[in-house]
């Protein structure tokens, strides 16, 4: 991993006074650690697992990705300015620069096209599979075969749920859950091999289809964001040496910085596909997903989502001809509510403010309950795949019992006489489900439960019949969806939070609209929309992107002022209780996420206070055996390089060398018997792309090196691969200031240098782990975290 916080003194010299300084540093550090905390006592050996055993985030090098506990490391977003990079940059011709720019736009086009096709397939499959299940259930009920109808409904749900559970539990555990917290962490600089792996992509696609079609109260929107990110990562791998699919043009993308931009485009494309909201997708990536943003990236994400919008429009036009089976009026079609007139008065504004407050309270409670359920499920999931699948089966049965059983308690309603549509509905979708009612009557609760989630939302947003759903039916549906949404998130299937939240919000919004019918002039369908907005704001704490997504989703620009008011109120109320749901899940999973702001207590500390020692460093020309020993004994990803006499008048910091670069250099075996500079020879021998990052964690490992005893005594020149301009901070800089610098520049390592002369040229290295509250407060338990 990349933490340079815990290291071994393996005999690399930093001159005499440096050695004594580091020994003093080590001694004081260890005394402080032993007296303050035992939680971090075995960092290099056994690390605590987040959410497991202790149920706390120890910011170890292990985190939960999906439903899988796996090792994590940081990403190298910084440009490594070594001599090879400078030579490559100087020698680039105009045609190569054009190729690079052209490829960035071409890949953005491919990401948009691929994500749109996958999203369309997703919806096509869900609508047809769920449609077949609902048609079969409806036909059996029309024939008065109620027990057979339940058996068919629950049985098909369970089969689909088991398929999704098996895929997630056995093939790609990282595909479980929403995926948005993992993508958010990746764009913040946290990597795990399984986050964006091809197996995760495949399981995310098919698992999402099976999970949503199985009737779970989950959405496909969160998984679509993860899917878009996986597609972008796959396209931006720079080819594959293993399968001989390398293309020299793609080598430009063998770095984390360009992959980050592509994955940001993929995340935006996922939202654009899920909601048919291209502008909302860009704003979602800006507001929620990405940690670093610039104008060039804005253009490319906008282009990507524009491609998505055009492809989807073409495909939906094709499906309107009836060639897509049961798909057509289902997923990807806007919830058009612009038939209602959004004129409002003072009483309406008071009602809307009430919805905002209610959304904030219910949203923060939802986040609290999801947190508790996830921690409980982790106890079950850690027992193995069989228990994960068993949990999926139990939740599936519970969902089926609720969806089929609760409508029996609802009263039948006579069909309105002035309808343009058929009542009761015969078929898979529609507002008026017959269920067990007599001819000419419909069951309002069945119209919500025995439908796809998209159709249920469309029914709740409907403005055609104010009294379509009884107040009791809306309350029962809200309570059931709220409860099922909480217990479903966390099982081993791909599951999004958007749809459960929209369903619950729309139901209590419409319920409030019915209760305030005599006071408010707004339509109940618009109340449903505002309720959905308030609950989204209360759980996810987004404002601008949610506002635009909902406006694009409903095609009703006149609702903009009301939507803004509701989102601002719900977010403000909810923020006073807890954090947004994705922020909570990121923390809960143990992902070391760097916030945009520093914690207040960090102003009481300076950079050197959290530096760990002793520090491992290399000479500019180092013995091969020393390097190999350091690589084997530690998992650090960055090592300071110190120039010493005769290569410098006094010890001075030459720069920082990465572990991956050292492995490539040692694997080439270009060693010398004496301590001499060989940079000119290396510049002829190597190219900057030889040190490019391999895709999907397939790079060299220390176990792959084959170095004999004779070579261990030889020397290697590290100057050509050393980043000669690493970011440095003086040891007296406040930790808060260093944290902001680290986050804003997207760094992996920051070198801490001494303020006074006559000391070793480097005090220590700060990594992501050193800024984590658990680590800092573990070292200094007397500091109040809120001061």
TrEMBL record:
<feature type="transmembrane region" description="Helical">
    <location>
        <begin position="515"/>
        <end position="536"/>
    </location>
</feature>
<dbReference type="Pfam" id="PF00571">
    <property type="entry name" value="CBS"/>
</dbReference>
<keyword id="KW-0868">Chloride</keyword>
<dbReference type="InterPro" id="IPR051280">
    <property type="entry name" value="Cl-channel/antiporter"/>
</dbReference>
<dbReference type="InterPro" id="IPR002251">
    <property type="entry name" value="Cl_channel_pln"/>
</dbReference>
<keyword id="KW-0406">Ion transport</keyword>
<keyword id="KW-0677">Repeat</keyword>
<feature type="transmembrane region" description="Helical">
    <location>
        <begin position="471"/>
        <end position="503"/>
    </location>
</feature>
<dbReference type="InterPro" id="IPR001807">
    <property type="entry name" value="ClC"/>
</dbReference>
<keyword id="KW-0407">Ion channel</keyword>
<dbReference type="GO" id="GO:0034707">
    <property type="term" value="C:chloride channel complex"/>
</dbReference>
<keyword id="KW-0129">CBS domain</keyword>
<keyword id="KW-0869">Chloride channel</keyword>
<keyword id="KW-0851">Voltage-gated channel</keyword>
<protein>
    <recommendedName>
        <fullName>Chloride channel protein</fullName>
    </recommendedName>
</protein>
<dbReference type="InterPro" id="IPR046342">
    <property type="entry name" value="CBS_dom_sf"/>
</dbReference>
<feature type="transmembrane region" description="Helical">
    <location>
        <begin position="195"/>
        <end position="218"/>
    </location>
</feature>
<keyword id="KW-0813">Transport</keyword>
<keyword id="KW-0472">Membrane</keyword>
<feature type="transmembrane region" description="Helical">
    <location>
        <begin position="262"/>
        <end position="286"/>
    </location>
</feature>
<dbReference type="InterPro" id="IPR000644">
    <property type="entry name" value="CBS_dom"/>
</dbReference>
<feature type="transmembrane region" description="Helical">
    <location>
        <begin position="542"/>
        <end position="569"/>
    </location>
</feature>
<dbReference type="InterPro" id="IPR014743">
    <property type="entry name" value="Cl-channel_core"/>
</dbReference>
<keyword id="KW-1133">Transmembrane helix</keyword>
<feature type="transmembrane region" description="Helical">
    <location>
        <begin position="97"/>
        <end position="118"/>
    </location>
</feature>
<feature type="domain" description="CBS">
    <location>
        <begin position="721"/>
        <end position="783"/>
    </location>
</feature>
<feature type="transmembrane region" description="Helical">
    <location>
        <begin position="149"/>
        <end position="175"/>
    </location>
</feature>
<keyword id="KW-0812">Transmembrane</keyword>
<dbReference type="GO" id="GO:0009705">
    <property type="term" value="C:plant-type vacuole membrane"/>
</dbReference>
<comment type="similarity">
    <text>Belongs to the chloride channel (TC 2.A.49) family.</text>
</comment>
<feature type="transmembrane region" description="Helical">
    <location>
        <begin position="292"/>
        <end position="312"/>
    </location>
</feature>
<dbReference type="GO" id="GO:0005247">
    <property type="term" value="F:voltage-gated chloride channel activity"/>
</dbReference>
<feature type="transmembrane region" description="Helical">
    <location>
        <begin position="389"/>
        <end position="410"/>
    </location>
</feature>
<dbReference type="Pfam" id="PF00654">
    <property type="entry name" value="Voltage_CLC"/>
</dbReference>
<feature type="transmembrane region" description="Helical">
    <location>
        <begin position="350"/>
        <end position="369"/>
    </location>
</feature>
């Amino acid at each position: 991993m990349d933490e340079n916080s815990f290291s071994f003194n393996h005999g690399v010299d930093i001159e005499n006074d440096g050695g004594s300084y580091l020994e003093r540093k080590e001694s004081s550090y260890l005394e402080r650690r032993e007296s303050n905390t035992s939680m971090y006592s075995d960092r290099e050996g056994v690390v605590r697992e987040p959410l497991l055993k202790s149920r706390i985030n120890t910011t170890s090098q292990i985190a939960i990705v999906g439903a899988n506990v796996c090792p994590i490391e940081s990403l190298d977003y910084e440009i490594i300015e070594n001599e090879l990079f400078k030579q490559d940059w100087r020698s680039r011709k105009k045609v190569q620069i054009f190729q690079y720019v052209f490829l960035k736009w071409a890949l953005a086009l491919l990401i948009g096209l691929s994500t749109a096709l996958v999203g369309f397939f997703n919806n096509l499959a869900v609508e047809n599979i769920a449609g077949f299940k609902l048609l079969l259930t409806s036909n059996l009920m029309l024939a008065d075969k109620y027990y057979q109808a339940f058996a068919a409904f629950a049985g098909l749900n369970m089969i689909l749920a088991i398929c999704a559970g098996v895929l997630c539990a056995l093939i790609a555990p990282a595909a479980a859950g929403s995926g948005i917290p993992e993508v958010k962490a990746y764009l913040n600089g946290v990597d795990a091999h399984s986050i964006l792996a091809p197996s995760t992509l495949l399981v995310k696609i098919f698992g999402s289809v099976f999970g949503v079609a199985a009737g779970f109260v989950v959405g496909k929107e969160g998984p679509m964001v993860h899917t878009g990110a996986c597609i972008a990562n796959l396209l931006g791998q720079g080819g594959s040496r293993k399968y001989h699919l390398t293309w020299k043009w793609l080598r430009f993308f063998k770095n984390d910085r360009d992959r980050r931009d592509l994955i940001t485009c993929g995340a935006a494309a996922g939202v654009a596909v899920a909601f048919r909201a291209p502008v909302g997708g860009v704003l979602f990536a800006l507001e929620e997903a990405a940690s670093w943003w610039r104008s060039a990236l804005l253009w490319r994400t906008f282009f990507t989502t524009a491609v998505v919008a055009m492809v989807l429009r073409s495909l939906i036009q094709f499906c309107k001809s009836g060639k897509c089976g049961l798909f057509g009026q289902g997923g990807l079609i806007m919830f058009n509510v612009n038939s209602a007139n959004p004129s409002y008065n003072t009483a309406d504004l008071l009602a809307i403010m009430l919805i905002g407050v209610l959304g904030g309270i219910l949203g923060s409670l939802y986040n609290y309950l999801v947190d508790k359920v996830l921690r409980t499920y982790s106890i079950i999931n850690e027992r193995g795949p069989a228990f994960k699948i068993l949990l999926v089966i139990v939740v599936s049965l519970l969902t089926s019992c609720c969806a089929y059983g609760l409508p029996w308690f609802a009263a039948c309603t006579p069909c309105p006489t002035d309808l343009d549509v058929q009542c009761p509905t015969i078929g898979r979708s529609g507002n008026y489900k017959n269920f067990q009612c007599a001819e000419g009557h419909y069951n309002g609760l069945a119209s919500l439960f025995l439908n796809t989630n998209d159709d249920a939302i469309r029914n709740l947003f409907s403005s055609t019949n104010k009294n379509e759903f009884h107040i009791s039916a809306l309350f029962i549906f809200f309570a059931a969806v709220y409860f099922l949404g909480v217990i479903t998130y966390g099982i081993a299937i791909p599951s999004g939070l958007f749809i459960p939240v929209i369903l619950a919000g729309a139901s209590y919004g419409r319920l409030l609209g019915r209760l305030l019918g005599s006071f408010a002039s707004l339509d109940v369908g618009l109340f449903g929309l505002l309720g959905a907005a308030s609950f989204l704001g209360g759980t996810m704490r987004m404002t601008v992107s949610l506002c635009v997504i909902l406006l694009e989703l409903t095609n009703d620009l006149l609702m903009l002022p009301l939507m803004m008011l509701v989102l601002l109120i719900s977010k403000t109320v909810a923020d006073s209780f807890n954090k947004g749901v994705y922020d909570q899940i990121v923390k809960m999973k143990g992902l070391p996420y760097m916030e945009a702001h520093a914690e207040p207590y960090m102003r009481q500390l300076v950079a050197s206070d959290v530096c760990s020692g002793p520090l491992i460093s290399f000479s500019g020309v180092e013995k091969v055996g020393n390097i190999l020993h350091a690589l084997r004994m530690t998992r650090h990803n960055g090592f300071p390089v110190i120039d010493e006499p005769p290569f410098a008048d006094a010890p001075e910091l030459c720069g920082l060398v990465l572990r991956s670069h050292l492995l490539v250099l040692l694997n080439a075996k270009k060693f010398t018997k004496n301590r001499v500079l060989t940079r000119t020879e290396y510049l002829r021998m190597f190219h900057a792309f030889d040190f490019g990052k391999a895709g999907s964690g397939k790079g060299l490992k220390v176990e792959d090196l084959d170095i004999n005893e004779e070579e261990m005594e030889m020397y290697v020149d590290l100057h050509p691969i050393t980043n000669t301009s690493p970011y440095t901070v003086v040891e007296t800089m406040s930790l808060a200031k260093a944290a902001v610098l680290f986050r804003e520049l997207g760094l992996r390592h920051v070198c801490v240098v001494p303020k006074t002369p006559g000391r070793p040229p480097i005090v220590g290295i700060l990594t992501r782990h050193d800024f984590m509250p658990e680590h800092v407060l573990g070292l200094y338990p007397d500091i109040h975290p809120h001061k």
